[in-house]
Input
Amino acid sequence: MEMDAVRAVPLHPELELMHVDADTDALDVRSLCKHFIVNLPKKELPEANGVLQRIGRFFRKPKKRKLAVDNISLRLRRGEIFGVVGHNGSGKSTLIRMISTLLEQSSGEIRVFGMDPLRQAYQVQRLLNRVSVDAAFFKKLSPNENLLYAARLYGVDDKSALKRAEEILAKLGLEEGRLTDSMQELSRGMQQKVAIARALLTSPVLLLLDEPTTGLDPKSKRDVQDYILELQRTHDATVLLTSHDMEEVERLCGRIALMADGKFVARGTADELKQQVLTRRIERGEAQATDGLPKMEEVFIELTGHEWLSAEEDVDKPD
Ligand SMILES: Nc1ncnc2c1ncn2[C@@H]1O[C@H](COP(=O)(O)OP(=O)(O)OP(=O)(O)O)[C@@H](O)[C@H]1O
Ligand SMILES: [Mg+2]
Output
């Protein structure tokens, strides 16, 4: 139902300009892997034999390959909001960075509306925008100045950029008076709202939202979520969103993937995931068909094998 309504939204002008067919998947990711070379953790180091080996280690630390994204395949239709949930270090941001041309994959293929971020980086960058929790700004400049800078990069004229920024920020609940303060004077939540406005200024076709609401107060969270839903209703926008907030993904996302150790360990609608867990419990004799569906937090624990931690608890944990 919802999908049909979304598809009735006219094709984004940028897609028309690039002669992209309306039926092309917004995103098609196949067998994507990314490994990093990292220092071997102390506990995995074999015993050093003698002084020479210890000195050798001091100058040349033993390394290992760390698979951050492990064989992920994913297709997003135009207009879909797809959620990825996983703990710190599960690989969510690495996945998003590869799609947004910031990072090269070790293997596998990515297509954004049929285009390859490695070979057609410019076209892909025109179509997408990314918001991340650690958004970078010119800290001494104001939100307005930062937004204008971004708008000019994308060829949006100053007047319409400022008008649109004001509209978006009003919806997200950032007071107009703060738009001329320097960024460093704003709280982290306020900066986050400016980051979201910056990404939406250019009306991206594919929006990559890496924990867009982490650290926001409940009212602001709701405002951002409402805006994402409105965007999906009124624009030709497709969204890939990562989150630590189960309520959020359940509210926003048609389909959800649970990510652990670089892999998608389960995916489906919230109800399908819940049903999957209930069925498992019935098979184990721990539940009956008449029992209600479990909560998403329980689904996460059972399907990822990780204990559920709320966003506030789930910070700065070593891998
Ligand atoms: N540039 C890098 N060099 C080495 N290792 C990296 C690099 N970037 C990420 N990693 C490692 O890859 C794994 C996945 O990291 P990633 O940032 O994608 O996780 P995440 O799911 O986004 O976590 P969080 O919820 O904390 O944002 C982690 O083990 C991380 O330490
Ligand atoms: Mg991340």
Q: What stands out?
A: The longest strand covers residues 63-76. The mean pLDDT is 86. The pocket of magnesium ion (ligand 2) is lined by residues 92-93, 210 (CB under 6 Å). Residues 269-306 form one domain.
